[in-house]
Design brief:
Elements (H helix, E strand, L loop, with lengths): L6 H12 L4 H15 L2 H23 L4 E2 L3 E2 H32 L3 H4 L5 H28 L9 H25 L3 H17 L12 H7 L3 H14 L6 H25 L6
Antiparallel strand pairs: 1-2
Helix pairs in contact: 2-6, 3-4, 3-6, 4-6, 4-7, 4-8, 4-10, 6-7, 6-11, 7-10, 7-11, 10-11
Length: 272
């Protein structure tokens, strides 16, 4: 018999190859999304509860003693900060924990073996991380809105800063997950970088209440611009220009994305 593939079989195979250029990306994105969604009580509901506890405690203690932006109640001011804090922390946690777990258990080999480009690898992890951050943030906002009046003056600014913030911390999580060799190193990254930058970014206060020196220092914190621009979308007021915040946040995303892609292209600590 001639060593020729039957036409019917060839006709079925060729369209499958031609029509599925992003199969690997979609599969990895689905895997990363399913990873956090299957334990959503831990990865979505628990962070929402934590943020609401912050809201309950700080609003009870400070609501009658602190005013911001002239006529904005402190509790209303606090909600956007807690929403953005939840987005950032959960976006970072999603990509970093996924990578470090895969490296420690050896499952990372199943992600590296398929014909998946480093750009698709990066996009899948960052999109899944941003999605988790947005889900947690939406949960915090929805529950808070039942108790606190939170206006939304510019919804597109809210959405834009939330997506950019999630993408930045998702990228940073990929970097941390690649760099760390054990959970202790990842915890140090979280405790000595992410948490301090978040807490000193104006989540719980307006930087105009600080001495001038600390106001100037706050402008070197990129998390401040993420939260301040996000808060502008709610109240139409902010501590600095929203366009400046957008420029700083956009630049941070470009730089972190470039760094992450360079690490993935080299296979740093992944293909060694």
């Amino acid at each position: 018999m001639p060593d020729v593939e039957p036409r019917a079989v060839r006709a079925r195979i060729e369209p499958m190859v031609a029509e599925s250029p992003l199969t690997g990306f979609r599969t990895l994105l689905y895997k990363e999304t399913l990873r956090f969604w299957k334990v959503s009580f831990q990865t979505v509901a628990a962070p929402v509860l934590n943020a609401l506890l912050f809201l309950l405690i700080f609003s009870h203690v400070l609501d009658r003693h602190v005013t911001v932006y002239g006529d904005v109640a402190y509790t209303s001011f606090l909600v956007p900060g807690l929403v953005m804090m939840s987005v950032l922390q959960n976006a970072f946690a999603n990509s970093s924990s996924s990578l470090i777990q895969s490296k420690i258990t050896g499952n990372i080999i199943f992600v590296l073996l398929p014909p998946l480009s480093y750009r698709e690898f990066y996009a899948a992890y960052v999109i899944a991380s941003t999605l988790r951050g947005l889900m947690v943030g939406a949960g915090v906002l929805a529950v808070s809105a039942a108790f606190v009046e939170v206006p939304m003056a510019h919804p597109l600014w809210v959405l834009g800063f939330a997506v950019l913030g999630g993408a930045i911390l998702g990228s940073l999580g990929v970097i941390a997950g690649i760099w760390a060799d054990k959970f202790d190193q990842l915890a140090a990254f979280q405790n000595f970088l992410i948490m301090p930058l978040t807490m000193l970014s104006g989540v719980f206060y307006s930087i105009h209440s600080l001495p001038q020196f600390w106001q100037d220092v706050s402008h070197f914190n990129p998390f401040f611009f993420m939260i301040d621009g996000f808060r502008y979308g709610f109240f139409g007021q902010s501590d600095t220009s929203p366009w400046l915040s957008l420029g700083v946040v956009g630049l941070c995303f470009v730089l972190l994305a470039a760094l992450t892609l360079a690490m993935l292209a080299r296979g740093y600590k992944l293909r060694s």
